[in-house]
Write a structure and sequence with these properties.
By secondary structure, the protein is α/β, with parallel strands linked by helices. Helices cover about 35% and strands about 35% of the residues. It has five helices and eight strands, in the order H-H-E-E-E-E-E-E-H-H-E-H-E. Strands 1, 2, 5, 6 and 8 form a five-stranded mixed beta sheet that branches. Strand 1 and strand 2 form a beta hairpin. The longest helix is centred in the N-terminal third of the chain and has 33 residues. The termini are far apart.
Length: about 230
């Protein structure tokens, strides 16, 4: 009787061990199926990355609002020579002065329509996105007519519409010439990263392995080449 119990007990132990092994094998198989995509498959993500980036088309990455006051001082002077002596006299009541407030909006964008594998550099599990050169445009400019201040002497004519138009043009040129000093390319690069890094993380890249950069460090002369004259 004791021998029969021992046989039944041994069979039960064997069955329990087999069930445990089956459960462990099934769990291991499930873990493999649910494992996330790794960078071993990163090569396959490049075409998908290119497609996603190209969808951005024009990515506006920076916007600056600039307020500038254009000033002009126009004094009438009398110059000549009398008895072999030169003279230069300011004509009384013949001054003209004007201050024109101008507001302008400047935007920087990156055109990804031609983005390709040439813009991607990979080194193991590290990836660098080389951004296309930024484009900068003054999208609008407007004179604050209510706050234009001018003084015209009694002997002088008021500023003509043509003169005012020329001063506005000079103001626009002055704002455009100041763009390289605004740090707009650094802002464009930082804001482009805010868009691209989350996109790349979804494709399996780790944030610490992602670099967003322009093809070079831009000086003032380079930045002037990226400025689009006119408005959108």
């Amino acid at each position: 009787m004791n021998r029969k119990r021992l046989i039944i007990l041994a069979c039960g132990i064997v069955i329990a061990v087999i069930l445990l092994l089956l459960a462990t094998t099934k769990c291991s198989s499930t873990d493999k199926e649910s494992a996330p995509t790794t960078l071993a498959q990163g090569i396959d993500t490049v075409p998908m990355l290119i497609m996603q980036v190209q969808k951005c088309s024009k990515l506006y990455t920076a916007e600056y609002r600039v307020h500038k006051i254009i000033t002009h001082d126009d004094a009438l002077r009398l110059k000549g020579q009398l008895m072999s002596k030169a003279f230069d006299l300011k004509v009384p009541l013949a001054d003209r002065k004007i201050a024109i407030p101008m507001d302008a909006k400047i935007k920087a964008y990156i055109d990804f329509s031609d983005f390709s594998e040439k813009n991607i550099e990979r080194d193991g599990d590290k990836i660098t996105i080389i951004l296309p050169d930024p484009q900068i445009v003054m999208t609008s400019s407007k004179i604050d007519q209510k706050n234009v201040k001018q003084y015209v002497g009694l002997t002088r004519a008021h500023f003509s519409d043509e003169e005012l138009s020329n001063y506005q043009k000079q103001g626009r040129e002055a704002i455009i010439n100041s763009i390289p000093e605004m740090g707009i390319t650094e802002t464009a690069q930082a804001n482009a990263a805010k868009v691209l890094v989350p996109m790349m993380k979804q494709l399996g890249y780790k944030e610490q392995n992602i670099t967003i950069a322009f093809r070079q460090e831009y000086g003032q002369n380079n930045i002037r080449d990226f400025i689009i004259k006119g408005t959108d």
